[in-house]
Specification:
Number of strands: 19
Number of domains: 2
Strand order of the largest sheet: 1-2-5-8-9-10-11-12
CATH class of the largest domain: Alpha Beta
CATH architecture of the largest domain: Alpha-Beta Barrel
Radius of gyration: 23 Å
Largest sheet: 8 strands, parallel, barrel
Distance between the termini: 62 Å
CATH topology of the largest domain: TIM Barrel
Shape: globular
Amino acid sequence: MHGYSVVLAGGGYPWRHPDWLGRPWEESVIYEAHVGLCGGFLGLAERLPDLAAMGFTTVELMPIADFPGARNWGYDGVLPYAPDRAYGSPEDLKYLVDTAHGLRMSVLLDVVYNHFGPDGNYLSRYAPEFFRDDLETPWGAAIDFRRPQVRRFFQDNALYWLTEFRLDGLRLDAVHAIEDEGWLPELARNIRRVVPPPRHVHLVLENDDNCADLLRAGYDAQWNDDAHHVLHHLLTGERQGYYQDYADDPAGKLARSLGTGFVYQGDIPPTRGAPRGQDSSGLPPTAFVNFLQNHDQIGNRGWGERLTALDGVDPHALRAAVAALLLAPQIPLVFMGEECGARAPFLYFTSHGDPELARAVREGRRAEFPAFSGSEAHPVPDPNAPGTYDRSSPWPSPDDKDASAWRDYYRALLQVRARLIAPRLMGARTQGAAELGSHAVRAAWRMNDCAVLTLYLNLHARDEQALPAAQRPSAQATLVFESMAGAAQALIDGTLPAATAVWMIEESDD
C-alpha cells in the first residue's frame, strides 16, 4: 500500500471454461460474501460446490480492490485495479471465477467508484485534478467526474474486471455520491458496447436516491433498501434511525414495494423533509434486488447483530420472511451465514497501521451510527482490533443441527424457485398488492406463461389475519410453498395464521 507495486502481464491464465457466457439475470439468486472471512479467493472457491448444490446461482464479492492491512470491508480501497494481496494472487481470483463458471455460477463484484480510502491513496499528490475542491462526500473529497480522463479511468476499470477476470457483472456502490448524472448511463452504454450479447453481463446499483430512470438506462437492477427497511421493522419493531420512515403503515409500505418496487417514489420520508425517489411502477420485479440482511444492514449496527440474534424476532416470522424473499419475483440476495442461521455478528473491521487514523475511525464509527450503537459503558467494538474481525466469522460447527435445518430450508425453497419461479420471470408483471392487516399483505404477479403467482404473508408473531372471501385463493390455485404446515388449508378456510407465508399459483388455461 505504501511500498512497491507489482505490475503483471495480462492474460496467461489457462481458463478451463472459456466458452462460459453467463446466466440470464432472471435466474439470479445472489450470495453476498466477504472474501477474507471465506478464506480468501481459494477458500471461497472451496465453498462454491455447496452453495451451488443449495441453489445459489450467483456469488457477489464485497470489494476486493487493494486496501490497507489485512482486514477491511473493502470500501477503503485505494488501488482499483489491484485485487487485494490479503485474499490471494490475481491468478487465485481467476481460479475462483473459473471454478464458479464450472458450477454454472455467475460472479459479481462490488466496486467503489464514489471515493478512495483514506490510507495509502497517493492519487491526490500526483493528480490533484482528479478530485473536486468544491464538493465533499461522507468519505472525503469528491471525485471529479466532469473530467473525461476520470470517466475513462473508471470505465476502463469496469471493463478490466469484466474482461481480464471474466466477472459476470458489477454492483456499483453508493452511486448517489457520484456528482455527474450523465456518467452512469454513459458507463452502462460503453460496457454493453464492449461486452455485447450473447454474453450476460449484469449491472446493479446501490442508490439511496431511488432513481428509477437509471433502471431504464442500461442497469439491470438496484438494491432495494426500502424493501429491507420495512421488512426489518415488521420483524423487529425497531423505529430508530431510518426505520422511522417505515414505522407508519408498514404493511401498506410493504405492499407498495412488492407491487411497484420502491416505497418512496417522490414521497417525503419523515426523517428527511424532502422528496425521495422516482416512480418505479412499470419496471419489472427483477429490477429490484431484495434482501433481509446484507453487509450494510448488519454491519452498520453498533454490535453487528443478525436477525437470528435479535430478541424481538420471532423465529417462525423469520422463516416466513425467508420464504417470501426466496420465492418472490424480485431477485433475492442472501448475506453469507444467513443460509445456516448464523448468530455471529458481522462487525465493521479495519487494520489501519496509523494509530491516529485507527482512533479516528473508532470514534467516527461510534458517532456515525448513534441510533444503532451501544452505550458508553458498553461501547461498540473497536474496528481496528483483530478480535473484531475474528468474531465476525459466521461459520457454524459441522454438527450444528440448527444450522443444518436452516440449510435444508433454504435448499428446499431454492429448489422451488428454480423449478417454478425462475423459468417464468422474464416478462412477469405485478397484478397488484394490498395490505390485509397491520403485519399482513397479499401480492400477486402474472408470470410470463400467464400463470398467477400469489403470496400471502403475515409477519405478526401472535395474531392471525382473517381474510374476506374475495382475498382467499381460488379453487383452481395450487400450493407452491407454506412456511408452516397447515397454513394453506387455514388460508382456504379464511384465516392467514400468524408468522406464516403461503405461496399459491393458478395456472393459465391458455
